């Protein structure tokens, strides 16, 4: 069967370009296989001058926010709950659910590298039927946070993650504006879950998520 | 751990050219191809224990293809429209009618290389990948079916259609070139 195909061959290996790997790529792989570095290395091209101003003002903004967050008291829970719901609704309304759309934790997790000052645990082995949809950057409790999006039977769950002052915090459920919220802390990370799922299903998912991140999987 | 990485490199690095060539043709960008290959090798290392004895090349190319598709979905979502079925219907009609039974030699050795490259780049990605895997990597139909995750029949029809499109592009180009020289 494969031999008959030879008659149809175009001989593209000779007639078109065969791209051999640049020598630097092998060196880069040798390094990254040992460090497990994220795939996206900075481009060797310079940033166009017109972007420098933008980058600079962005950096100033980040610094300012960071400074301010030291002087402000941590936002209270009712405040965070309101912000989390607002963020969830906004993401749905603006159809801007994910900046990185992937069901693969090894695509989503590296995407956050360089965008946040922490690395959010991204797990896919949570509960049956719940799948990772992607992630995006968001802003909650006066700081940039990771928002991970999961889906179950057409329901979306936003999981907001950012570093916690304490190692662990017990699971608590809240209802806010008709949305169910669950929050807890594990391994020095805060987790806020919000969804239109019912409370028991969301709690079940939260349990599975908490176990998965605690096991470091 | 270091031993495992060394074993992985012994198995996977010999196929670096194949991995890069596929990524380069699917992303059509040298830098993005490098990023894709790096990501694919990191993933492959993770799944390395699942690889039994056998040819590592199709296994590695499957992962490279997967990362390429993730990349295309993210960066050029318009390229992976889900209308493959419709495409395939048209494809069957085309191959049965005009091309496919061309008795002349099919080799394009004499054709303008840049022109052939452009013709390949212009193919829809589902056709481009089977063409690269067959003509450049010389995988068997079975292996291509496994790499692309489609039935063998689909591999054959896509391959035939892809070749027909390349031939048509080259013939059209040569005809235009002749017309220019004979006004």
Task: Tell me about this structure.
The complex is a heterodimer of chains A (217) and B (183). With 217 residues, chain A is of the alpha+beta class. Chain A has a domain at 74-214: MucB/RseB, C-terminal domain (Phosphorylase Kinase, domain 1, 2-Layer Sandwich), CATH 3.30.200.100. Chain A is built from six helices and seven strands; from the N terminus they run ααααβαββββββα. A seven-stranded antiparallel β-sheet of chain A has the order 1-2-3-4-7-6-5, with helices on both faces. Chain A starts with 11 loop residues before the first helix and ends with a helix. The model of chain A is unreliable at 39-49 and 68-74 (pLDDT under 50). In chain B, 73% of the residues lie in helices and 0% in strands. Chain B has 183 residues and is an all-alpha fold. The longest helix of chain B has 30 residues, at 152-181. Chain B is built from nine helices and no strands. Chain B is elongated, with a radius of gyration of 18 Å. Chain B starts with a helix and ends with a helix. At the A-B interface, helix 1, helix 2, strand 1 and helix 5 of A face helix 1, helix 2, helix 3, helix 4 and helix 6 of B.
Q: Notable features of this structure?
A:
heterodimer, A: 217 residues, alpha+beta, Phosphorylase Kinase, domain 1, seven-stranded antiparallel β-sheet, 6 helices, 7 strands, B: 183 residues, mainly alpha, Arc Repressor Mutant, subunit A, 9 helices
Helix share, percent of chain B: over 70%
- Please give the order of strands in the largest beta sheet of chain A: 1-2-3-4-7-6-5
The greatest inter-chain interface is formed by: A-B, 40 and 52 residues
CATH level 1 name of the domain at 74-214 in chain A: Alpha Beta
Main CATH class of the largest domain in chain B: Mainly Alpha
Order of helices and strands of chain A: HHHHEHEEEEEEH
